[in-house]
């Protein structure tokens, strides 16, 4: 039959991605991507004995979100993870031995593909965001997520960019809320992570006594299946859960001009959080920082972040203004 014709050209797809204010699912766009074969078994063979960090959470649903600060962590190979998921007796010892599969889920989330496969750069080309109008964007600018059933990310919004997510194995359910619902989602910066604003509400089991305004939100629920790509527009809140025994997805954040302003806000937030935290009782400091943030940065470094962000913002702002300026204005 020859090459499968994609519903949109790269140019048209980019136009949709950059202008759409609603989430959308793209179908039949990635049929020829080698990355569609990246199931957990294949990745396990590629990675060999390399260990990656898994976050473990309880399958029982509490009224509070399971923030990453409340999870357990193990380093394990994908082979060990798969054996644990399949209930193999070999798991009586090893990294997952303390965690009963019926009670826990495991998630290798937010893994930079460039870092995991730094010794196999040829694998980056399996991911072709050029079909979405972003030439040169590959696995190098993408992130990998591998989870067991029940694995989830607390509801949050990303400060920067919009998000393209390819589902490779299993299905994931996305609960998406528009930026207009922000106040009803009770945003918080604790745990602090640069670029993530969390919701205090456990979307899967909301405490309506504590968070009555949550009733006024409108969730857009999407079940993403293998071969589909989800667009999460800028500042849309999302809670994501794995609903099959094993899920694999790949995402890439697309930078936007509006990010320059967001970087200034984020730099100020970092400055404040670290200043307050250093003045606080250091014993409970671990609950402040999301595990993705290695440590509280010094005042000096935070000022550098702020300085860079402000400079980039004004540079971008000036460029925009000079484009608009007409002779004689």
UniProtKB/TrEMBL annotation:
Pfam families: Cupin_8 (PF13621)
The JmjC domain, residue ranges: 105-269
GO CC terms in record: cytoplasm
Keyword Cytoplasm on entry: yes
Keyword Cytoplasm part of the UniProt annotation: yes
This protein's UniProt keywords: Cytoplasm
Entry's localization field: Cytoplasm
Cited InterPro entries: Cupin_8, HSPB1-associated_protein_1, JmjC_dom
Function recorded in the entry: May play a role in cellular stress response.
PANTHER family assigned to the protein according to its UniProt record, in alphabetical order: HSPB1-ASSOCIATED PROTEIN 1 (PTHR12461:SF43), HYPOXIA-INDUCIBLE FACTOR 1 ALPHA INHIBITOR-RELATED (PTHR12461)
The protein, known as: HSPB1-associated protein 1
């Amino acid at each position: 039959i020859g090459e499968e014709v994609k519903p949109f050209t790269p140019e048209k797809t980019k136009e949709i991605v950059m202008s759409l204010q609603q989430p959308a699912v793209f179908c039949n766009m990635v049929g020829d991507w080698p990355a569609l074969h990246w199931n957990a078994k294949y990745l396990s063979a590629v990675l060999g004995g390399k260990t990656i960090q898994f976050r473990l959470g309880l399958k029982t649903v509490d009224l509070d979100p399971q923030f990453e600060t409340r999870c357990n962590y193990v380093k394990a190979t994908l082979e060990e993870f798969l054996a644990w998921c399949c209930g193999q007796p070999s798991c009586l010892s090893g990294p997952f031995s303390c965690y009963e599969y019926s009670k826990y889920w495991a998630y290798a989330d937010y893994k930079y593909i460039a870092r995991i496969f730094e010794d196999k750069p040829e694998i980056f080309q399996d991911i072709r965001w050029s079909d979405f109008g972003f030439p040169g964007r590959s696995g190098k600018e993408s992130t990998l997520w591998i989870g067991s059933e029940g694995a989830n990310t607390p509801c949050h919004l990303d400060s920067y960019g919009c998000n393209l997510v390819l589902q490779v194995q299993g299905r994931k359910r996305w609960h998406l809320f528009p930026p207009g619902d922000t106040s009803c989602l009770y945003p918080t910066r604790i745990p602090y992570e640069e670029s993530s604003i969390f919701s205090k509400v456990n979307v899967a089991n909301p405490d309506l006594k504590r968070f009555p305004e949550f009733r006024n939100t409108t969730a857009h629920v999407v079940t993403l299946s293998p071969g589909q790509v989800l667009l999460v527009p800028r500042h849309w809140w999302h809670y994501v859960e794995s609903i099959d025994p094993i899920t694999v997805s790949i995402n890439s954040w697309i930078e936007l001009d509006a990010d320059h302003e967001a970087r200034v806000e984020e730099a100020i937030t970092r400055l404040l959080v670290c200043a307050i935290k250093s003045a606080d009782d250091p014993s409970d400091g671990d609950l402040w920082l999301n595990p993705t943030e290695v440590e509280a940065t010094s005042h000096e470094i935070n000022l550098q972040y702020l300085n860079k962000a402000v400079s980039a913002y004004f540079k971008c702002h000036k460029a925009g203004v000079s484009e608009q300026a007409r002779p004689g204005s």
